């Protein structure tokens, strides 16, 4: 019987929103609750430095915010198979990263579509930023079960923007195994059904820095105010006008969060024919989102006094333990040993 490991993570650059939930956290929690995997959830504070090296205060606050958001949505590090890992607290990871850098090729890294898109938005990108697709490969494989057994699994549940990175992670694992010896189990990406959520302005994806997010920590009043200001269909000026229910963020959110999807589709039909007002539609969404967020708010309050430091210490320690046989095998195979 193979061993099943999950490693996934988020950059710690601010508190989390509904987009993080549908794109990632929902799947993480399902996997955690199924209980078949050893789960390592990575607080990627080192990767956050690739873009925010000038703002360490933001980073330390974000580690706490993200940890609280994870706890609030129901990730549970008191379970024996769940670990919250702070990336900077696993020094073995840097070693593995440095060694993956040796077999990764510059030409293939700069062709990475996600990196290419991000580079366009970024002036003065750091070397750390350019190299992050390779560095991230070390995140994944530091907890690769070793020695490998048949049917081992390294599962990486992510948003769809991360898929090119994971394909690359598979390539590098195979390259290493072919050149040196069998150490890595190529990872499996897992993308949720609703891969991404647009912002409340209807533009691009939801993002805190673009000011178009509904945050997991927003109060009921803030959610209401944000939803009531949401972008809908600009051509749907009067209630009786036919409206667009497809490229309409209110419907997108209803499809992602409303427990009664049948009613949502009836409403969408009606909206397309004309006769449904935006205000009524938004009121429904306010209710749906606050129903969704209420248990999250309650759990957040329960965790108010939790000792985040020891949660993170223990989780990082678990990742270090898992990484030791991996890094020892890599050193051996790459001849990094006292002769
Ligand atoms: N790049 C991911 C993000 O931007 C975060 C991340 C870091 C990650 N290391 C990872 C995701 C390893 C999956 C696996 O959100």
Automatic annotation (TrEMBL):
Show the SUPFAM superfamilies listed in the entry. Answer: Nucleotidylyl transferase
Membrane-spanning parts: none
InterPro entries attached here?
aa-tRNA-synth_Ic, Rossmann-like_a/b/a_fold, Trp-tRNA-ligase, Trp-tRNA_synthetase
Q: Which UniProt keywords apply?
A: Aminoacyl-tRNA synthetase, ATP-binding, Ligase, Nucleotide-binding, Protein biosynthesis
Alphabetized CDD domains for the sequence:
TrpRS_core
Entry's Gene Ontology BP terms: tryptophanyl-tRNA aminoacylation
EC main group? ligase
Q: Which GO terms describe its cellular component?
A: cytosol
Tell me the domain of life: Bacteria
Q: Name one GO molecular function term.
A: tryptophan-tRNA ligase activity
Family of this protein = Belongs to the class-I aminoacyl-tRNA synthetase family.
Q: What is this protein called?
A: Tryptophan--tRNA ligase
């Amino acid at each position: 019987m193979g061993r099943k490991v999950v490693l996934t993570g988020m950059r710690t650059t601010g508190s989390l929103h509904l987009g993080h939930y549908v794109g990632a956290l929902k799947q993480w929690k399902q996997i955690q609750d199924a209980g078949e995997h050893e789960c390592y959830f990575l607080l990627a504070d080192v990767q956050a430095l690739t873009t925010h090296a000038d703002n360490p205060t933001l980073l330390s606050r974000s580690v706490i915010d993200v940890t609280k958001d994870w706890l609030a949505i129901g990730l549970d590090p008191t379970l024996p198979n769940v670990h919250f890992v702070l990336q900077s607290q696993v020094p073995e990871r840097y070693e593995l990263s440095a060694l993956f850098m040796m077999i990764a090729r510059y030409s293939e890294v700069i062709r990475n579509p996600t990196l290419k898109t991000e580079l366009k938005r970024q002036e003065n990108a750091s070397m750390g930023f350019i190299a992050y697709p390779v560095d991230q490969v070390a995140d994944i494989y530091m907890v690769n079960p070793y020695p490998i057994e048949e049917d081992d699994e390294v599962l990486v549940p992510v948003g769809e923007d991360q898929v090119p990175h994971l394909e690359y992670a598979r390539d590098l694992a195979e390259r290493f195994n072919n050149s040196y010896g069998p150490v890595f189990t190529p990872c499996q990406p897992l993308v949720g059904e609703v891969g991404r959520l647009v912002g409340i302005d209807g533009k691009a994806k939801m993002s805190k820095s673009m000011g178009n997010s509904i945050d997991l920590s927003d109060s009921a009043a803030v959610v209401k105010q944000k939803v009531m200001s949401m972008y809908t269909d600009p051509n749907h000026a009067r209630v009786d006008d036919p409206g667009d229910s497809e490229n309409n963020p209110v419907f997108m959110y209803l499809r992602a969060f409303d427990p009664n999807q049948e009613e949502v589709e009836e409403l969408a039909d009606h909206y397309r024919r004309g006769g449904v007002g935006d205000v009524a539609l938004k009121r429904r969404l306010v209710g749906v989102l606050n129903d969704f967020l209420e248990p999250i708010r309650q759990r957040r309050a329960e965790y108010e006094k939790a000792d985040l430091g020891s949660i993170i210490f223990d989780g990082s320690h678990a990742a270090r333990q898992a990484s030791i046989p991996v890094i020892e095998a890599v050193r051996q195979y790459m001849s990094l040993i006292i002769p």
